[in-house]
């Protein structure tokens, strides 16, 4: 198994870089992308003739990239800014991520990962390294997760409504404004066929396995399903690159693609559902073969779910999604083929037995969400944590006091005091993440909103 060992390009890969340039003579530059704590794209654009040199020697980027808040400001309390002299670290191109960018003429792209000073492992604050730690820990026990990522998003009109707010788009064929909920509508897929077909085509060009787009619960809402992948790091790379594709192709077709967790007050939010199964060294699904391992995995994820909420729901807007009857649970619960719970065990063949974590929003960082899911699964397996009883029926109608922390301050407080996450993700990583999000939270709540003028002026 190669699980968790997907590395970066080195001197041995220079012929591959040269061959890429020769294969695509019209390419003149390469976007080198580093995903920060918020899952936002950072990086540099280099001329194609520099690619072999970058493959051989790497590329310098400031470590403070992982101290940026959502506005792009460096949070000095993380210790990654002036305290380190705002110094650089070497970044390397991730293997098998070099591809064309069809919506940018003459441009290619590749994903970067930042290395520690000795250049033998990832930089501790790089979300990819946080995930790799979990993969390596499971591999030591000959356990190999298989992951699939599902993202929901809204297509919106490029023009705001009369009140200055985002609005559903005009349908390309009928010219009518979308106003109704038409979940799984084939008519909506027909209306947006040009956009959908181009997204699928570009994903194929970039080796992103996005073969399925469906109409979701609200006007203009869609879901993209990516294939299950035993290379978990690659699954997260593909999820991040898929969002980049959707945004770019939406803009090309005159729309805006919105991955906010809750773009509209009255409609369902955007989720990022994570499917996780687990294989042994023989390739057998241990959740299918050993029911107790499935139960302990569920027990671990549920036991520490409140402590992971600050990563599952990383922004102020994330918590507006947590409302009754909106397909997102308010409690750490689970059930068999039940979409009203936090952790669903989907129906299907026994060999496909898996967990579906339904709490993350589309604004999350998949590297970090999958890292925390795997960390708490391992905690459950190591300590034989038993789950509560499975929920049957509508979970929203059941009375329960064990609420999740569904406000940003509560979630950050639970994260800050989590011994399990410090153990699994390292205290240093948790410090950087908490300080960045705490600073962002303070700044957010210091702003006076238009609604306050409406209510209190």
TrEMBL record:
Sequence similarity: Belongs to the glutamine synthetase family.
Cofactor(s) listed in the protein's UniProt record: Mg(2+)
Highest taxon above the source species: Bacteria
Protein name, UniProt field: Glutamate--putrescine ligase
GO biological process: glutamine biosynthetic process; polyamine catabolic process
Domain GS catalytic: 127-457
The keyword Membrane is annotated on this UniProt entry: no
Keyword field contains Transmembrane: no
Source organism of the structure: Vibrio xiamenensis
GO molecular function, one term: glutamine synthetase activity
Keywords, in A-Z order: Ligase, Magnesium
